Amino acid sequence: MSEPLAHADRVTRRFGDFTAVDNVTMTVGAGEIVGLLGANGAGKTTLIRMLLGLVVPTSGAVRLFGRPPSRETRVRLGYVPQGLGLYTDLTSMENLDFVAHAFDRKGRPAKSDVTPEAGGQLVADIGLGLQRRLAFEAALGHEPGLLILDEPTSGVDPLSRTRLWDTIHVQAEKGVGVLVTTHYMQEAQQCDRLVLMSHGRQVAAGTDTDIIGATIAVEVDPEADWSRAFAALDSAGLPVTLAGRLVRVAGTPPDRVAEVLREAGVEAGVRQVPATLEEKMIIIERSADTAEPTPVAPANAASANTASS
Ligand SMILES: Nc1ncnc2c1ncn2[C@@H]1O[C@H](COP(=O)(O)OP(=O)(O)OP(=O)(O)O)[C@@H](O)[C@H]1O
Fold it and tell me: Where is the composition biased (Low complexity) (predicted)?
């Protein structure tokens, strides 16, 4: 395998007594889309900031394009932070010009989808969907080899989200490595590989299929009294979710679900189904909440490494 574009090798970052990232190893290779998942505060942004060289690891090492992060390696990066990094009191066009000059390019990107629509408008006056597209264009103008996107589609409508993901796929097909954080499972499933973080630790890695493995869920018959079923399973402390009227319980044997329903006087059939990625994440989060730190295999290991099955 060729040298990864980005490599975090057992990186830890502490802020005072608090460990924001704990012994995480991960890589991003050319042409692959790696998704970084985890609840708020899991340590995703801190890991990204270490990869970018903006935060120095307390221990461990980061390499970008095979070298420690530096001005030279950062020039080959495109970064869209959560806050987008745009100048809201400049117009869209001025933002692209500014970035083009910062990267020592003569002009702004040859092709912009945003400027024909909103080139002369202040960024503060355009919608979030357009702002995000503009931030993408600003990050891509210098044709980076590695794209780092921190929740790039947060708060945008489904159409803009699809467009942004089209751009991500086009870049990956051109050989650009992409590291992307997201809270949307549909987006996670578009990644080639996933790294799940919880409380600063890497708790699972692999494809979504690897991570889900043989984990099961139980579906409660939707014809049953779904609100009573949900309440009973929830108060029994089971990892229950509700989608429409469909009550599901992750990672719990059907017999246990049936027993809880019976004890609550709810008459309902149950059936075992494969778990979704979201359900697997719920299980992992619950076990990580109680687990002691455990060493985990690198994110590019052949098979998934999970805290729970
Ligand atoms: N400079 C800092 N000083 C102190 N604590 C920090 C600092 N930066 C981050 N943290 C803490 O580290 C933890 C991880 O934060 P981080 O932003 O990396 O999480 P995240 O997974 O990106 O969350 P989100 O999805 O909300 O962006 C949080 O508890 C945060 O408060």
Answer: 293-309
Provide the pLDDT for residue 292: 52
Q: Which of 19, 46, 58, 150 to mutate to test the pocket of ligand 1 (most atoms within 8 A of CB)?
A: 46
Q: What is the pTM of this model?
A: 0.84
Q: Is the CB of 42 under 6 A from ligand 1?
A: yes
C-beta of residue 101 within 8 angstroms of C-beta of residue 42: no
Give yes or no for residue 182 CB within 6 A of ligand 1: no
> What digits encode the pLDDT tens for the residues 205-256?
999 999 999 999 999 988 888 999 999 999 999 999 998 889 999 999 999 9
Do residues 44 and 80 make contact, with C-beta atoms less than 8 angstroms apart? no
Q: Determine, yes or no, domain membership for 127.
A: no
Place of tokens 């993901």: 165
Domain that residue 223 falls in: 216-274
The tally of domains found in the chain comes to 2
Q: Is the ipTM of this complex over 0.90?
A: yes
What are the φ and ψ backbone dihedral angles of 79, each rounded to 5 degrees? Answer: -130, 125
